[in-house]
Amino acid sequence: xxxxxxxxxxxxxxxxxxxxxxxxxxxxxxxxxxxxxxxxxxxxxxxxxxxxxxxxxxxxxxxxxxxxxxxxxxxxxxxxxxxxxxxxxxxxxxxxxxxxxxxxxxxxxxxxxxxxxxxxxxxxxxxxxxxxxxxxxxxxxxxxxxxxxxxxxxxxxxxxxxxxxxxxxxxxxxxxxxxxxxxxxxxxxxxxxxxxxxxxxxxxxxxxxxxxxxxxxxxxxxxxxxxxxxxxxxxxxxxxxxxxxxxxxxxxxxxxxxxxxxxxxxxxxxxxxxxxxxxxxxxxxxxxxxxxxxxxxxxxxxxxxxxxxxxxxxxxxxxxxxxxxxxxxxxxxxxxxxxxxxxxxxxxxxxxxxxxxxxxxx
Length: 362
Ligand SMILES: NC(=O)c1ccc[n+]([C@@H]2O[C@H](COP(=O)([O-])OP(=O)(O)OC[C@H]3O[C@@H](n4cnc5c(N)ncnc54)[C@H](O)[C@@H]3O)[C@@H](O)[C@H]2O)c1
Hints:
α4 runs parallel beside α5 and α5 packs antiparallel against α11. This protein has a seven-stranded mixed beta sheet. A six-stranded parallel beta sheet has the order 3-2-1-4-5-6, with helices on both faces. Strands 13-14 form a two-stranded antiparallel sheet. By secondary structure, the protein is of the alpha/beta class. The chain has twelve helices and 15 strands. It folds into two domains: about 130 residues, Rossmann fold, CATH 3.40.50.720; about 200 residues, Dihydrodipicolinate Reductase, domain 2. The site of nicotinamide-adenine-dinucleotide has 20 residues, from α1.
């Protein structure tokens, strides 16, 4: 079997999920190297996951590891510079969400990958999550008539690492972090229909004092085909991860719940090791998830990209899709600041999307 050589950049939360996906589900991939800036962390990750080479220097990894693909699992502010570096070295790139901090960065990433002749995939796992895909396929069969409304929400009580709360590193709060999933999934469900307007409201309700970023947001997007989509996102919701969608059609409706709806419902007086992502207790009633990585579509997403590399196909979700998501995020921040609908296209010059909400727009 042909094996494509992968280097994972980053050794945190999502890198763990990607390595599980490669090792359990993708024999067509061989993870040859890991990068983390802290050598002890890089070495520990390599040892734990049986990865032959680790690096604390990105340039050395790119030059020496022999990887064909870099899988970028680094904080948002590093997405663009690392993509440019990898593309210049001829590496194919799969990049975690959000694509970049700014539309200018997004454009430069797309252009660099094009001119280097390398593939750029925007890693939106909801486009591959088996339950959501079951929904999409039955909707495409005509099961619920014509879609007139979509809803998607992702909520928990806040990210695991400090950088998410720092707008310089993240570019914004829960909208950047989790709203991007909803927006990408809406476009996916609608065959990349163009968004025409965005209205949003947001606030910092729970993490005040820790961050200036929004931790609760609601975004309403109108698409050119008349569909209305509502994204609900929160870093303020307790009780573990919530990720669900609703599809309303002229002949029916579908609801799908990726976490609670895929879990065993448990009651424990003693508690136990792990229930699901961001659940802070296992005492009492809890939702005991199984195959958490698989259910979210990560193996399917990464396997698809390896196939694209091996068979020279275009990824189903591209840099251009990531850019379209980012533009809608810009519009949502501006709408929440101005209290009015923002029409697309929308491309103001900002350093970080959240500046459009915080009032620092240039
Ligand atoms: N698809 C999803 O649902 C999903 C889930 C979680 C995270 N993500 C995305 O994955 C990316 C990484 O998030 P995470 O949750 O793994 O974060 P994390 O904090 O758990 O891990 C980040 C990694 O980057 C390293 N790092 C941090 N600052 C660095 C710097 N200045 N220079 C070099 N390395 C640095 C950290 O040491 C760590 O190895 C983010 O873009 C995030 O949005 C996606």
